[in-house]
Every structure is written in C-alpha cells, then in structure tokens.
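Continuing the series of single-chain predictions for the mutant panel. This is the parent chain; the variants come on the following pages.
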Amino acid sequence: MRYMLMHKLDENLPEAFNPSPEFIARMEGFLKEVAQSGVLLAAEGLCETSKGATRITVTGGKTTVTDGPFTETKELIAGFALLDVRSQEEAVEWGRRFADIFAETIGEVEVDVRRVFEMPEVAPPA
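Parent structure:
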C-alpha cells in the first residue's frame, strides 16, 4: 500500500521555509532511515509560494490562474514523502516520526497521512 505524508506549514513563519542546520540534519537522518527500511519511494520539500507558484482554480466552469505568493493561505503543503508500506498503522508511525522532526525544530506542524489511490489493472480486451 502506498501512502503519502504531506506536511503543512504557515508560510508566514520565518523558520518554515528557512530550515535550521539542526532540522536539515535530523530530516536527512530520518529520510536515510526510511530509505534503508525499503519503504521510501520519494520525498521532497516545496519552495514558498513567492518562488514560482501558480494556483489554477475552476469554479462554475470558469478557470482562474493566479501567481504566488498566496498570502491568504495559512496551511500550505510544504513537502511530502511517498511510502510503500504494509499497513496504515505503519504509515501513521512513520508520519508521527516525520511530524516530530518539525515539531521539535520548527514548532507547530500538521501532517496528513493519505493512502494513494492505485488504478486497478485492466485486462486487455480478448
């Protein structure tokens, strides 16, 4: 089962997108451990919305394209880790450890642990 851990940060907090050396070291250690366990598929952090972000919104059939920064957004997805684990419980445990790194070095954080929808294999027509 694949799960995505997505962390959300407040872009208005100065430390949110300027990680300290302590944070970087702890995150590198965590990601190395997750990779060595064989469950890590991908992990990346995202830049703040002032650096090349665009939001596309479709409402009532009308498409609006807005360039960042998005100052009205308090909870912004700031990065992710994609895991291939045996259970939701395992994903939650990795997510808890992921969140602890942020909580102990940056402050408040919210981490969503979401199962990835996998398309069913379709048999070729006979």
